[in-house]
Amino acid sequence: MAAAHSRAEQRLCHQRQTLRPLGVALIAAVVVTAINGHPAPGLQGEALGVTLALCTFAATFAPLIRDRFGQRGHAVQAAVIASMGAASLALAALQPRGATELAGGAAVWMAVTRLPVPLAIALATGITVGLDLAAALRGSSSAAVLAITLLCALLGLAAYFLRQGRAGQKQTELLLAQLEDARERQLRAAGIAERSRIAGELHDVLAHSLSGAAIQLQGARMLAEREQASAEMRAAIDRGSDLVKDGLANARQAVGALRGDELPGVTQLGALIASYRDDMHLDVSFAAEGETRMLPADASLALYRGAQEALTNVARYAPGATTTVLLRYGNGRTTLTVENAAPSRVADGLAGVGGGRGLAGMRERVERAGGSMEAGPTESGWRVHLEAPT
């Protein structure tokens, strides 16, 4: 709708710009004929009246053909057009054989195109009757009076049809815009409904599967204690139980995102790193540099998920490695760097966990947000560097 209104305003400005040279030519024609008429403009008697009427006509008509004058209120425009009509009546009374009917016709045109219809009809009728009376009082024939009436009526009708054409075109565009907006709302509603359905399916499947896995791991822990299993086995079971709990939490978060809940972002990085430090016993530290600011939702989510994937990879492939997470707010870009040193021990079973698509998925997510990713070995370990627009 906003775009349709903007197009209508631009079209109206273009049409007025097209007609502006005609308005300038009309002012010139009235001025030239008034100067060559009788009495000619002067500083005494009727000549002074012609001068004042001519100046008033030009001073009121010139602003009316400018673009910005159309933004004034109807009261201001009506006052200016009325002054223009009064000046044309004065010219008609003082110079009956000049081109004064052009000035009056221009006032009628402006009234019909610029003002509300009732006010426009009243003002145009008054100007037309005034021109007829001025012509009749100066001794013009009935044919001349009729010609003035027909001229004003013709200009008024042409202006009215032009106005109706503009209004019809604008109304058509607005109706099409309303239809497009309604279609977009329908598509959004259908998308929300589909996401809600998928969220429900994911919740049912993942909640059932992960809850069952959690129960089995609890039984395995109890069995390991009863069988007096080794400490390494009990630790592996505990770690698996923690991973299942994290999976449940992440699954709930993903389902909430499908349903339109608030997505995680860089503001939750501290809590995320604390969970890895406590649950997976990672030696990880976090620091932020620069002036904190809100990021676009997709960029903030991409950085959060990137940190999550990078820390998960550290837990899988470099357990015990000292890891640093640095969030830096720069000019136009926000970067996230996750770097770990060489691991102090070899991964004990988690290296085979996962689908092997972590880095590729991380790259795709950050590129969809307009950013980029670099990942690779360093002299002492591994480094992941993400950039996202602010």
What count of structural domains?
2
Shape: rod-shaped
Strand order of the largest sheet: 1-2-3-5-4
Q: H/E order of the elements?
A: HHHHHHHHEHEEHEE
What about the largest sheet?
Answer: 5 strands, mixed
Strand runs, count: 5
Strand content: 5-15%
Q: What's the total helix number? A: 10
Question: Which whole number gives the mean pLDDT?
Answer: 81
| First and last CA, distance | 29 Å
State the helicity in percent bands: 55-70%
Radius of gyration: 40 Å
The computed structural class is alpha+beta
Summed up:
With 390 residues, the chain is α+β, with helices and mostly antiparallel strands.
Account of the protein in words:
By secondary structure, the protein is of the alpha+beta class. It has 2 domains: 2-179, no CATH class; 262-389, Histidine kinase-like ATPase, C-terminal domain (Heat Shock Protein 90). Helix content is 69%, strand content 10%. It has 10 helices and 5 strands. It has helices at residues 2-36, 45-64, 74-94, 100-114, 117-137, 142-226, 231-258, 269-279, 297-317, 358-368, and strands spanning 283-289, 322-329, 333-341, 372-377, 381-389. Strands 1-2-3-5-4 form a 5-stranded mixed β-sheet, with helices on one face. A hairpin with a 3-residue loop joins strand 2 (322-329) and strand 3 (333-341). Helix 1 (2-36) runs antiparallel to helix 2 (45-64), helix 3 (74-94) runs antiparallel to helix 4 (100-114) and helix 9 packs antiparallel against helix 10 (358-368). The longest helix is centred in the middle third of the chain and has 85 residues, at 142-226. The radius of gyration is 40 Å and the shape is rod-shaped. The two termini are 29 Å apart.
